[in-house]
């Protein structure tokens, strides 16, 4: 069951706020009856009409994309750059990304038209783990890695605790590969965490979003989530409600 104004806005007719105005003015019918209450909820079996025209009901769809670098995490870009939705010409539903990955960061990103799940996953209180692998210029000490793990001060506050592991280091080139798992979603957070310690991130990839990884996907590939994966995502956020 979903709120009536949400169902109307998801149909593409108008925004949610304007949908509320349509309801209040008596221009919406549910199963042939005029409704003016904002709190009413409808199921997929209910017939919803606006100004006498039945609206189309989108089914919820969920995709995992291996976003390449040089792609914007948005549905459109004013500068004409490639966006994540360009990889879904076969999808008729109006999907959008859940959160963002920086232009120069690759990896796992979800796209859906399920606004309820998207909002829950993006809310910081639900602490969805996101695992990154960073190639950095320099080799951090164990003490510096511990600082990242405990939380490091940035201009917008101290970061939450993180899981940090050095995967490899090249003493000759003075470079290291670090895996870091965070649950916050600040702008360019991982890059800024390393920069706070004096290290420049040369390459950054999000390997995992929650329990979802990129196994079997090449850069630019995507796959539809299985029903049990969608259910598990809802279970993740519902546990912390």
From TrEMBL:
Cellular compartments per GO CC: cytosol
Listed InterPro entries: PsdUridine_s_RsuA/RluB/E/F_cat, PsdUridine_synth_cat_dom_sf, PsdUridine_synth_RsuA/RluA, PsdUridine_synth_RsuA/RluB/E/F, PsdUridine_synth_RsuA/RluB_CS, RsuA_PseudoU_synthase, S4_RNA-bd, S4_RNA-bd_sf
NCBIfam families with a match to the protein in the record: pseudouridine synthase (TIGR00093)
Gene Ontology terms for molecular function: RNA binding; rRNA pseudouridine synthase activity
EC class of the enzyme, as a word: isomerase
Swiss-Prot/TrEMBL keywords: Isomerase, RNA-binding
Protein name, UniProt field: Pseudouridine synthase
The keyword Membrane is assigned to this record: no
Superkingdom, natural source: Bacteria
GO biological process, one term: enzyme-directed rRNA pseudouridine synthesis
Pfam families: PseudoU_synth_2 (PF00849), S4 (PF01479)
SUPFAM superfamilies documented for this protein: Alpha-L RNA-binding motif, Pseudouridine synthase
EC number: 5.4.99.-
Transmembrane found in the keyword field: no
Annotated family: Belongs to the pseudouridine synthase RsuA family.
Domain RNA-binding S4: 2-64
């Amino acid at each position: 069951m979903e709120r009536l104004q949400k169902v109307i806005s998801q149909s593409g007719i108008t925004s949610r706020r304007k949908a509320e105005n349509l309801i209040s003015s008596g221009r919406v019918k549910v199963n042939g009856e005029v409704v003016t209450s904002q709190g009413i909820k409808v199921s997929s079996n209910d017939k919803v009409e606006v100004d006498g025209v039945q609206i189309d009901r989108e089914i919820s769809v969920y995709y995992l994309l291996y976003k390449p670098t040089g792609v914007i995490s948005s549905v459109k870009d004013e500068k004409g750059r490639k966006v994540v939705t360009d990889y879904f010409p076969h999808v008729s539903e109006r999907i959008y990304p859940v959160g963002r990955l920086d232009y120069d960061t690759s990896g796992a990103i979800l796209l859906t038209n399920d606004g309820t799940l998207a909002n829950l996953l993006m809310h910081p209180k639900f602490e969805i783990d996101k695992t990154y692998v960073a190639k950095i210029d320099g080799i951090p000490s164990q003490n510096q890695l511990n600082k990242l793990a405990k939380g490091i001060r940035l201009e917008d506050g101290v970061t939450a605790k993180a899981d940090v592991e050095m995967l490899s280091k090249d003493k000759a080139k003075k470079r290291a590969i670090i895996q870091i798992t965070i649950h916050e979603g600040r702008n360019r957070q991982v890059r800024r965490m390393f920069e706070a310690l004096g290290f420049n991130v040369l390459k950054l990839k999000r390997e995992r979003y929650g329990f979802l990884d990129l196994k079997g996907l090449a850069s630019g590939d995507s796959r539809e989530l299985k029903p049990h994966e969608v259910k598990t995502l809802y279970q993740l956020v519902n546990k912390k409600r």
